[in-house]
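Records of this kind hold a single protein each, on a pair of labelled lines. With that in mind, the following record should read easily:
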Amino acid sequence: MLEKNQNENLCNKNLYIVMNKPAGYVCSAVSDSHKTVYELLPPEMRELVTKPKRGHRLHTVGRLDCDTSGLLFLTTDGYFSHKLTAPENKIEKTYIARLKTPGNLSYIEKAEKGLILPPEKKAPQQLSLPAFLKPLDSQFLLWQVKITEGKFHQVRRIFLSLQNEVEHLQRTKIGQFELPPMLKEGDFLEIRHPDEINI
């Protein structure tokens, strides 16, 4: 536990956290049915989710759905968060998807043209911007996916549009910042300054 003056310093500076989110956790501050990513943080950091005034609270930068693992930023810096999530900035996100059945090379051209995403839960049918797909194995089961949007379950819906399903999904990169290879699932590290996060 931090001493009182250390806690005050934590509240008075912006916080930047890189987490390797495990599947099974949600990005909401509160959930009745799932564990939240904030439960992976120490108590003094969890206090920053609700205690500070609005605009200075710890929050996730965008979201990863419950079944998706990988790179996740958390911060108290609203400007940093907006920079990464504003649609006009078109920050590229990279994922690795493992499919239920083998895909094929036609996926590449179809995704680059933009696909009609099927409706799912709270999301209606939507048109996606071009996505960039690359097979990573000879069986066409493992694919790299690059997108610049953040539509609900977008990567999973891209493959549904291609008549396939995603069995496992991990985000590995945001902009030029890659998930640190030494960071195990459920672990996090604190970044001292946002300039260290090369987006």
